[in-house]
Amino acid sequence: MSPSPSANTSSANASADADVSAQERALLERRARLLGPTYRAFYRNPIHLVRGSGVWLYDAQGRKFLDAYNNVASVGHCHPRVVEALSGQAATLNTHTRYLSEIILDYAEKLLGTLPSHLGHAMFTCTGSEANDLAIRIAQHATGNSGVIITDFAYHGATIATAQLSPAAVGAKGVPAQHLTVAAPDTFRDHGRAAKDFARNVAAAIDDMRAQDIRPAALLVDSAFSSDGIFFPEAAVMREAADHVRKAGGILIADEVQSGFGRLGQGMWGFANYGLEPDIVTMGKPIGDGHPMGAVIVRPRLVSSFGSNTGYFNTFGGNPVAAAVGIAVLEVIEGEGLIENARTVGAYTAELLDALKGRHGMVADVRQNGLYFGVELTAQDEATAAARTSAVVEAMREDGVLISSCGPRGNVLKIRPPLPFARDNAEQLAETLDRALSGRAC
User: Where are the domains of the chain?
Assistant: First the structure.
């Protein structure tokens, strides 16, 4: 899921910032009055966006920003093919799945065709949070177990069940006793020891559960460990972790909300990079290029009893408009070669970012897979590193490029552009980051 609350945000107090224009200050004050204190805006000087196209976003003054952050608009903001599919179906029919409809079946068939054959059923939701919530319900029903293992700064959603499995949002104390956290497979710190020990840590968590008379229902992992700081551990370690949970009677849930739909440049799905065969796959944001959609893809045997005893219905999940949008997104990814683009432009971008390590001592590590990057910044202490990271994000915003931050220490630059990102966009990103790191941003 995404984004974690560690991402660079500003509160309603931003209205007092001298950099905020009178128009934006009025919008912030109105926002606080109407939406309350829980809604936060990105950046110290929030952006009033009015239009998007491809990898670009435009503010109310007509200024253009390079979007290097949003995986929601996965195939580009306002892609004409997606807009046409949405508007055409909305003008024809939109209702729920309790009526017969060909288009939802066409979409399910096309989506399932991108996944391993053992995953035979598609269940549709409106958000990734709902998808993860449903996946947990299915796992607990199918296994008869209650515990879920997650990483220690994961983010999996905003429902009651998924928020409790999102220590990035609720903190370690907000995770119920039947669920356990394990250290994320950090490939950078301490020579990558946490990454090497990931499977061992999962096994230890299972033993800890047994000692408390808890049995694991699932290991729930984001394939890119996005909120934890963006890591891509060794495939063998990930497969061993999955084996541990299955031997203990649980299942593997792959959260593909951030890593799916071609982002990692090696295929459609992040879990495939590890050679994993998940029992459930969950999807969200990029599935609809900005349209609210989500999905749960599952082994049929896991829902046979769930379907007859519990059932599932979602008024808006899988509606004809959503199905039309979903088909269009898949067609654009395939037709425009966006997975290959993620691979080649991602590699080129990584070269540019790696070059900054030699120019700026604070750049300690660049982690990359396709068009997903984590740039870890360091300093003499964690607080300084986090402050510098925030300052870099703000400087880049002022210089016309949008990124964010993540990780438990708040010191990892999170770069995750729409899939049509091109080489010249990569060059602008790297040049802007170079200026921000040098303190020369506009």
Answer: 80-335
Whole-number pLDDT of residue 15: 43
Lowest pLDDT segment from 8-12, 58-62, 125-129, 201-205? 8-12
- In tens, the pLDDT along 16-62 reads 455 678 888 899 999 999 999 988 889 999 999 999 999 999 999 99
Q: In this structure, which topology does domain 80-335 adopt according to CATH?
A: Aspartate Aminotransferase; domain 2 (3.40.640)
- How do residues 154-176 score in pLDDT, each as one tens digit? 999 999 999 999 999 999 999 99
pTM: 0.94
Distances (CA, A) of 321 to 94, 212, 214, 257, 317: 6, 47, 42, 20, 10
